[in-house]
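Researcher: Structure for this, please.
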Amino acid sequence: MRWNNKYLPFLALIIVYVIGAFRIDIMDIDAAQYASIAREMADNGNFLEVQLRGQDYYLDKPPLLFWISAIIFKLFGISNFAYRFIPILSTILGLYAVYRFTKLYYSEQTAYVAALVMGSCQAFFLMNHDVRCDTLLTNSVMVSIWLIAEYLRHRKWKYFVGGFVFAGLGMLAKGPISLIVVGSAFFVDFVLKRQWKQLFDPRWILGIPIIGLVLLPYCIGLLRQYGTEGIIFFFWTQSFGRITGENQWVNDAGLFFQSHNFLWSFLPWVLAFIPALVFAIRHVVKQKFLLTSQEEAISLGGFVLPFMALSTAQYQLPHYTFVVFPLAAVLTASFLIKTIENPSSATVFKWVRVGLIITSVVMGIVILAACTWFFPLENIILIAIVVLLAVLVVRLYNGRRPGFSQLVFAPFLTAVAANLVMNYHFYPTLLTYQIGSVVGQKVAKDYQDKKDAFYIYDLEASTNYNIFHSALDFYTQRTTPVIKSAEELKTTKKSKEILLYTDEQGLASLKTIDSQAEVLHSYQNFHVTGLTLPFLNPATRATETQARYLVRLP
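Model: Predicted structure, token format:
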């Protein structure tokens, strides 16, 4: 591969990331809630005490994402792209880190493929538009692992300090899981190499004050808001409590929940990763659990142990294991390059190629359904680009093409083409059913002079998430007051004209209170992060949506 073409695939990745950053609205619940917290933080300037809607509510996540988003909002204003700007930059740094880490132990070509696999797996496309704490966590952990590996190779203190700073930033992004992944990775590596001096090197203790300095501002804020309870929650209950049952969040997802989610979230590489993991474990067993100093088990240990631990948690969501995906990319890249370069791997090459072709076909069918059935695509230019990419993918899978084209570039382009459609067309169309963001932007644009008299009328607000507030707050750039009863509405309205965002129950109540209540706009709402086939099917979509209204009370 010529050097001047080396960066083109990464440029394609960044273009798709950026398209999603601009075109896709912030999604409820989590991403919109985090963006709203950051907006509120930018307004009140209170960075040490995290608040949501003016209350000391949000203990569940550390504040790194809130801090950097609030700073960006202050500097550049509030927008979709502003919220995603730093997470995308962190992903670019994470790609560089996985490249540099892999290059320490493997060939440059393997390192290049590892970065391609990491950046093009489905989880990373998702993490860079549906931005939660995992984007910063995952990339911080990968940078930490790379720098500590550099320290072990070169013994330079700048790598030691940098490695623990980024481990601390990972904790500041999502808690102790950062240290668990980093620690598991090097623990397994040291044990399998019998490097006991490395494992028990007292210099590791110096990492504790480095991490402590990174966490100090947050710990001060926790003490001010919650006392010692906040410290205990951050260092124990938030992460370990999900495994021990001390954390109140329980959904009994099951032991294989994360394994099932891995099948889609590591597309299009999942059918290459599975044999890669099997071969890596088999190699360790054949070596009688004793590796040479030139080999590495950092990626294997850093993937397997945290993945297993997270799979036993009593509360699980699909993105919880994304933190170990860069290490899965290293394992996959090593396996692919060995398969491509080893003439004796013809049978393995054939079956991996078949698996990747099946994956590409399945992804193609899903995208075709999304463009023709779910939400028909009418943009001729985008259609032409995707068709050209699809033709190129078919040509790259041709058996006469080089192995690198078949096992790397073809699935990579499949991922780029699929997510170009998703980010430019599917998600923006889907988000027209997230009415909190739709109404928020409508009020901010067309009813700016009435924004201070805009309220949410939610008669079920005290019992559940009936009408989500976060996207609405983010796009109106204010904490929208919630009116919870007809009596409260009468007190609030008095003689002034007001705007209300409500549901069918609220509208029925409004009509009994004021016969002049005017429906300015009606909408059909759907919780877009919980897709169902009846919703995707246009013929049954109406059965899955709930009516929402923007109402004027004169």
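Researcher: Any notable elements?
Model: The CA atoms of residues 117 and 422 lie 19 Å apart. The first helix runs from residue 8 to 23.
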